[in-house]
Design a protein that fits this description.
6 helices; globular; 6-stranded parallel sheet; 3-deoxy-D-manno-octulosonate 8-phosphate phosphatase (KDO 8-P phosphatase); hydrolase
Length: 173
């Protein structure tokens, strides 16, 4: 397992794509035609803990399914950008809403629509199975594939660097 080469004490916010990052790249289709996603329980635990520890979390996804909204709202994420056609616009809205600077934001994406955000944020990260173009602009490539704990990987490293991982409220949901 590798570690992120960045001053993680500076990170105040984490933003994630969903498909290919917090959900695997292969998704079943419901008979209605709606894409169904998988989620990783350990990603979910880490995200809700980060929220409790005061780290801002954003979900920026092109997807529009209600199940995705419910999943992340249930983890305490209030900044949900669904149906994001051009992600850089939603990223900038999130950044500016909280008065953040790019160097304080980690973004994890896996494919071409994520590249603009990754070039602008301070800490661009990606899963092990990200597109080659995304890996080329990433400062950290997780040892884990999308949907299988890459979110947990980066959240855990940030929280540990800030002494917020095994905190008092870490032992519950």
């Amino acid at each position: 397992m590798s570690t992120i080469n960045y001053d993680l004490s500076r990170i105040k916010a984490l933003a994630f794509d969903v498909d290919g990052v917090l959900s695997s790249t292969t998704i079943p289709l419901h008979p209605s035609g709606e894409p169904m996603r998988t989620v990783n329980i350990k990603d979910g635990y880490a995200i809700q803990l980060a929220v409790k520890q005061g780290i801002r979390i954003a979900i920026i996804t092109g997807g529009r399914t209600e199940a995705v909204r419910l999943r992340f709202a249930g983890l305490g994420v209030t900044d949900l950008y669904m149906g994001s056609a051009v992600k850089i616009h939603d990223y900038r809205e999130f950044r500016d809403k909280y008065g953040l600077v790019d160097e304080e934001i980690l973004y994890m994406g896996d494919d071409i629509p994520d590249i603009e955000v990754m070039k602008e944020c301070g800490l661009p990260c990606c899963p092990k199975d990200a597109a080659a173009e995304v890996k080329a602009v990433s400062k950290y490539i997780s040892h884990v594939e999308g949907g299988y704990g890459c979110g947990r990987d980066v959240v855990e490293q940030v929280l540990k660097a800030q002494s917020k991982w095994m905190a008092e409220d870490a032992f519950g949901w």
